[in-house]
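Appendix C reproduces, verbatim, an entry submitted by the partner laboratory led by Prof. M.T., so that reviewers can inspect both the input and the predicted structure.
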Amino acid sequence: MAQSASYGYLAGTSMHELFAQFRLDPQLGGNPNNVVRVRIANDSGSDIQTIFTSDLNNLNFNPNTYPHMGAVRIRTASGLVYRSRIRIQIQILNANGGEVTAWFPELAVITPDQVGLSRLSGMAMRHELYFATPRGNASLHVAVKKNGIVTQLPAL
C-alpha cells in the first residue's frame, strides 16, 4: 500500500482533487467487493462526504434494506437543503489507483447528480491522513504519516 500521494486541481473548480473508492459498509449489509471509483473535491470546510445517487446505483444501494442515519439540514450556496445520510466506507487512492489508506467509515449525504456538481470531502479522511500544500497552492499532498508529507514538499 502506498503511504502518500499528490494531486492537482479538480477540473472546473479551484479545489484540489483526491482519488478514492466508495463502498457500502459491509457491516451494514453492503457488498465489500462492489466498489465505485470517484474523484472528490478536497473541501476543508465540508464536514460531511457527498455521495451521488449515481454512485449509489452503481453500488446496488437499496434504500429499503440499507440503514439510513436520518436527514440533515445542509447550508449550500443555493440555501438550505435537507439530505438523507448513510454510512459508507472510503479508501483513498493515488493517481495510479494504488491504495493510500485502508478502508475507513464516513458519513455521507445522498445528493442528486447535477452537471457541474462535485463530490465534497468529509471529515473522516482528515483523521486518516496528513494534508499539505506547498507555497502557491499548486498541488495537494497527502500521507498516512507526517514524514510522508515532508518528503513530498519541494525544498526551498
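DSSP finds three helices and nine strands in the chain. Additional entries are available on request from the coordinating office.
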